Amino acid sequence: MTQHLTMTAPEVLTWLERRGTKRNRDGMARYAIVAPRAYGVSVGDLLSLGKQLGTDHALAQALWKTGWYEARMLSASVADPARLTPAQMDKWTRDFDNWAICDHLCFNLYDRTPHAWKKIDQWCGSKEEFVKRAAFALLASVALHDKSTPDAPFRKALRLIERAAHDERNFVKKGVSWALRSVGERSQSLYDAALVSARRLAESPDASARWVGKDALRQMSTPAVRKRVAARAARRKTTN
Length: 240
Description:
This protein is mainly alpha-helical.
């Protein structure tokens, strides 16, 4: 049995403060990660500490309340997705203040909860930039990680993607493009449907929609993506 560290939130903050550097904070700024309270701890150190702490939902809640960027990133590692309630997801998501914390929680925690699809539907209409981005970061994460859901819900989600592609805000449209590309990689059928959506958006008179469509088309057309889709199609034939 793995022996995990036992730490309180104040002890975690002390650990983080000792490992933070100005160099890492400057690096965050270069990647447009704007966090009012950040120590500047490397992602590698955060992931290492998260593994050592293990699952501790009470600690995750306490870390989130501190407001520190790295503490909130750690929340995704130590929170129990089975205990994360819809209300708690809403509260944390309203606190998102940069794309990194948004994507990290969607990719490493939210997509493992039973509430993911409901939150995608709920947040996709939000007026808040990072809440709306969360809808599509979560859709991308589910598309990449969920191995059992059939194509139908993802095909339906393409309509959400096309509607949101007209949002001109930078972090929203980048999240929308990520979702479109991720849905397209699930299967040959979804790849074909996503290409139709991407081409339609690329021909839109709306600048934001046009950017999303062209960005998705460029990346979906690479040999690496086509190879992955073909490999998934071959595996599906083998198992059916």
